[in-house]
Amino acid sequence: MKTFKKECAICGSWFSASSNSAKYCSDACREQGAREHQRDLMRRKRKAIRDEKQSRVVQLPNKYGVKNSAEMMKNHVEPQINIDMEKARDKQDWFTYYTLYKQRCIENEQEWGYQGVHFVSGIEVHDERFVELMLEKIDE
């Protein structure tokens, strides 16, 4: 039977092998090689998953000239009422905030032709005294 003089892929020592495809000189080197191979395989797999998550963007039909959702959001303009509500919330001006909130709900319902039921802390938005009741609730 023919023997081959080979160099171990892990420790670098020379050994004689009966097969041309042998890579390791001992069982310990074989286990370490398998561990390194598995570690490298998992590293590549995790990198592929991470890259796929980062590149995950909703693809839209290109008939509007928009390539993806990020490009579409770049030109998005926030409605003025939302900007005013955010400013009032930051200043903790609750009267203005809840007045604008009620106005936004009513405008949205008029746009869609539907009257829903909106409760905030147990108070219905369509109540005439909604803002005053909310301010009383906050003061409690």
Low-pLDDT segments, ≥5 res = none
Indicate the mean pLDDT: 86
What Rg is obtained from the alpha carbons, in whole angstroms?
A: 33 Å
Helices and strands, in N-to-C order? EEHHHHEEH
Secondary-structure class: mainly alpha
Widest β-sheet, arrangement of strands = 1-2
| Subunit arrangement of the protein | single chain
What is the helix tally? 5
Helix percent reads: 40-55%
Largest sheet: 2 strands, antiparallel
What does this structure look like?
With about 140 residues, the protein is mainly alpha-helical. The protein has a domain at about 80-140. About 55% of the residues lie in helices and about 10% in strands. It has helices at about 25-55, 70-75, 80-90, 95-110, 130-140, and strands spanning about 5, 15, 120, 125. Strands 1-2 form a two-stranded antiparallel sheet. A hairpin with a 2-residue loop joins strand 3 (about 120) and strand 4. Helix 3 (about 80-90) packs antiparallel against helix 4 and helix 4 runs antiparallel to helix 5 (about 130-140). The mean pLDDT is about 85.
